[in-house]
Design brief:
The complex is a heterodimer of chains A (318) and B (333). Helices cover 44% and strands 10% of the residues of chain A. Chain A is built from 11 helices and 7 strands. The longest helix of chain A has 26 residues. The chains are: A alpha/beta (318), B alpha/beta (333). Bound molecules: thiamine diphosphate and magnesium ion (MG). Thiamine diphosphate (TPP) sits at the interface of chains A and B.
Chain lengths: 318, 333
């Protein structure tokens, strides 16, 4: 893999983590609005998969995919504005936290809470590309929990049936809210669920950004070449609560320790250093740039205006 | 119509009252079980309503489900047909739509079609005002009030929450139980111990008055009572009717109140268009027209998805100030 790409993957993960850490501390200080979701531990998935897409492709991220929004070019100030209910967020104060952050100009379909609505919708985007004969790909994400919903199964069946240019990233982070994997399903291989419908499926280490990037890139290429849909199960761990209010006391401490040792950013940093792609000065600089960038974004979002209540009914219809 | 909420004695929060109803019924009746996402284990649900139940009654009677509402409500249909009394929690009322077919097509029609009763309860934490955005703030009661074969309740006080939930569990029909989540921990009141039942289908006069009637339910009851206090300062004597059950509707209590006051405002958090208030207003227009001194007025949410940002959500939602203004207009008519 080319050195610039490796550095870029790393820089996006650092920016994502920096955003996340800053967001969590804002909410702890009472400077947040409503709830929000930390994606800590998911950086390799959202960045690795997001970077595998081309500029004309479309993605529907879910609530742990902050990195994908950033990689697609949604600015940190716009995202913070959405989190704070400001007029300058992509949903203009209409939708909460990481929901509703759609921007078709950036190839992003906004998230809806209802699991797994993103799946059939993204399949539809892929089918529109196929219909018009465009070499474009549509990608979305689903949690382990979401693989238990009927819509997951309906979507994968149709995706395979129609050989759609569709890519699904399954984020197996061991939990759906408080419910561990073994209380959600009698199987443990989520890639196999997808494979059973005739979708090309594989499992990757979700804390290895380069592995995620390679697997998703291959899937995107297959889709682009008319070779049908793929599902990539990326195995990771949700490192904080389901949402900001959740202390996740139900997660065994040993499990978190085990996964903390596999932190995707720390791991990639060590690999880059070992391979001589960067030195510690470069990394320190990268961290400072990210911190500066996020501090500016927060300042801008905090001083941005709230939407004017006189506009409350605007936008219901196209 | 029954009105006594009891005074003195111990007080519980709205949430504690619901939890108590669940344990009273599980203790009494082995057929009662609880299922839903994250309701089990030590966690006890997104709002902690079922916390402690799994420890007390075991995993067999407090079941965690996968994220599969259509499936697990359908499963509750079958359990109910086989003689169990499942109490299903949908994590937020907003997610009840995922189970729509299992509710409005199967459960609602079954007894009429071939006589098989479906005695389940779906507990649905509803309502907003707490900056939760379009998918964690909804009040979808009108969908179900429009569906023959269901019962729909929406308690506003801890005593009613307990008494109506016990009645719902004992009812032989599918009952949707809308919990007003802004009230969970903010409202506390006297709650009778043990097997306390409030009958389904009975409204309550929450405040007596002679000048104007407010008909409401759920969290807006508290806004209406606050507005009534402010109006009293100016000598406007407001009666407040808490519907408590939305289907079947206690029309008699409403009509009786309107006959005495001649002016009526119907209030709910749900959007106004084709909401429960439309049915209430229509019944008043049909059956109490001769007593009216002013047009029947409705106050509800705007006809938009529920927005997240504070100034937008405040513009969306009825509150005591808007109720007060609407009543002043009615009285001045
Ligand atoms: C239809 C539906 N039911 C319930 C919920 C509430 N809910 C939001 S996220 C979540 C858990 C999701 O778990 P998973 O799919 O594994 O994703 P993760 O949060 O772990 O990333 C639940 C139950 C929902 N969003 N949609
Ligand atoms: Mg998960």
């Amino acid at each position: 893999m080319d050195a610039d790409l490796r550095i870029s993957l790393h820089a996006w993960m650092v920016l994502t983590r920096t955003f996340d850490d800053a967001m969590v501390s804002m909410w702890k200080q009472g400077r947040g609005l409503g709830g929000t979701f930390s994606q800590r531990g998911h950086e390799a998935i959202s960045v690795g998969a997001g970077m595998a897409l081309g500029p004309d492709d479309v993605v529907a991220p879910m609530h742990r995919d902050l990195g994908t929004y950033l990689v697609r070019g949604m600015s940190p100030e716009r995202i913070f504005s959405n989190l704070l209910g400001k007029a300058t967020g992509p949903s203009r104060g209409r939708d909460a936290n990481l929901h509703g952050m759609g921007d078709l100009g950036l190839g992003i379909i906004g998230y809806i809470s209802h699991i797994p609505q993103a799946l059939p919708t993204t399949l539809g985007a892929a089918m529109a590309f196929r219909y018009r004969g465009e070499r474009r790909v549509a990608m979305t994400f689903v949690g382990d929990g979401g693989t238990c919903s009927g819509g997951f199964h309906e979507t994968l069946n149709m995706a395979a049936l129609y050989r759609a240019p569709f890519v699904l990233v399954i984020e197996n982070n061991q939990y759906a809210y408080s419910t561990p994997l073994h209380q959600q399903m009698a199987v443990s291989d989520l890639a196999a669920r997808a494979a059973s419908y005739g979708v090309a499926a594989e499992r990757v280490d979700g804390n290895d950004v380069e592995a995620v990037y390679r697997a998703v890139s291959a899937a995107v290429e297959r889709a682009r070449n008319g070779e049908g849909p793929s599902a990539i199960e990326a195995v990771t761990m949700r490192m904080l609560g389901h949402a900001i209010h959740d202390g996740a006391e139900y997660v065994p401490a040993e499990l978190l320790e085990e996964w903390a040792a596999k932190d995707p950013i720390e791991r990639h940093r060590n690999v880059l250093l070992e391979d001589g792609v960067v030195d510690t000065v470069d990394l320190e600089k990268m961290r400072e740039v990210a911190q500066q960038r996020i501090a500016e974004a927060i300042a801008e979002a905090e001083k941005a205006p709230y939407p004017d209540p006189a506009t409350v009914t605007e936008g219901v219809y196209a | 119509m029954s009105g006594d909420q009891g005074t003195g004695g111990r007080e519980l929060t709205y949430l504690e009252a619901i939890a108590e109803a669940l344990s009273v019924e599980m203790e009494r009746d082995e057929r009662v079980l609880v299922l839903g996402e994250d309701v089990g284990g030590t966690f006890g649900g997104a709002f902690k309503v079922t916390k402690g139940l799994a420890e007390r009654f075991g995993d067999r009677r407090v079941m965690n489900t996968p994220i599969a509402e259509l499936g697990f409500v359908g499963m509750a249909n079958g359990m109910a047909l086989m003689g169990l009394r499942p109490v299903v929690e949908v994590q937020f009322a907003d997610f009840i739509s995922t189970a729509f077919d299992s509710i409005v097509q199967f459960a609602a029609t079954n007894h009429y079609r071939w006589g098989g009763a479906i005695p389940w309860v779906i507990r649905a934490p509803s309502d907003g005002g707490i900056r939760s955005g379009p998918f964690h703030s909804q009040n979808p009661e009108a969908w179900f009030v429009h569906t023959p074969g269901l019962k729909v309740v929406a308690p506003a006080t801890p005593a009613d929450a307990k008494g109506l939930l016990i009645s719902a569990i004992r009812d032989d029909n599918p009952v949707i139980f809308f919990e007003a989540k802004p009230l969970y921990r903010s409202v506390r009141g006297p709650v009778p111990e043990g097997e306390y039942l409030v009958p389904i289908g009975d409204a309550r006069i929450a405040r007596r008055g002679s000048d104007v009637t407010i008909v409401t339910y759920g969290s807006q009851l508290h806004e209406a009572l606050a507005a009534a206090e402010r109006l009293a300062v100016d000598g406007i004597d407001t009666e407040v009717v808490d519907l408590r059950t939305l289907k079947p509707l206690d029309v008699d209590t409403v009509l009786d109140s309107v006959a005495r006051t001649g002016r009526v405002l119907v209030v709910h958090s749900a959007n106004r268009n084709a909401g429960v208030g439309a049915e209430v207003a229509a019944r008043i227009a049909e059956e109490a027209f001769m007593w009216l001194d002013a047009p029947v007025t409705r106050l509800g949410g705007l006809d938009i998805p529920i927005p997240f940002s504070p100034p937008l959500e405040d513009a969306y939602r009825p509150d005591a100030t808007k109720i007060e203004a609407a009543v002043r207009k009615l009285v001045a008519f």
